[in-house]
User: Fold this.
Amino acid sequence: MKLEFASIASGSSGNCIYVASSHTRLLIDAGLSGKRIEAGLNELSLTGYDIDALLVTHEHNDHVDGVGIMSRRYDIPVYATEGTWENMPEKVGRIKPSNKNALYSGETLMINDLMIQPFAIPHDAAQPVGYSITDGSAKITVATDIGHITDEVKENIKDSNILLIESNHDVNMVKSGPYPYPLKQRVLSDFGHLSNDNCGKILGDIITDTLKYIFLGHLSNENNTPMLAFETVKGKLEAEGVVVGGDVNMYVAPRYGVKRIIRI
Assistant:
């Protein structure tokens, strides 16, 4: 095995991604209960004791609800930006000082054999980041909660072998849906979430032969459906001459549960 990827949870109600090499196992975010995270790890034949580190993207509840319990229960080091640490909700609880680690956008972090590159993302959080992770031979990138695509986001997702990218909502569903107007404005803003259309557009711009697997993540439960996200993004890619299922494999990351384990 070189690198391994699995989505334990991805969506507006909770996020947790598993990335591993032969020597290191990581979680990116822990935005659901400890019980649900443990169940996801069990599907991978793992427990929390097997996790070497937990990387946090930002402080919103759907990314941190289980951070404290997982760190305390299994003595897992947690890495986050200073802004995220300062704004972590009280429900996360106390984390052992020796397990509290700061990381910085643009600065490389090494955890055993994995090189981790945090990069700034445009979202309405204190100091949010996405992550690119490589063992030197393959690269996995997680980029969700991005209101729009910046040059920094493009640069970091470029040349990934596996990419989890946000395909949060259908714009028309947001506009005609039940959300109150301020929340609609937040979702649709440049610091909210990435739509299906914009996800497809950016993938069409950056895709190369290197990218083998795309996971569409962080889908809204109210303003999207898995089929709509998939078909919208597929249409944008095929308009650029990219054959989904031929040139690249594409899946929708499930809201809960491990459906696919990708090894590359």
Remarks:
- The mean pLDDT is 96.
- DSSP finds nine helices and 14 strands in the chain.
- The first strand starts at residue 4 and ends at 9.
- The longest helix spans residues 226-239.
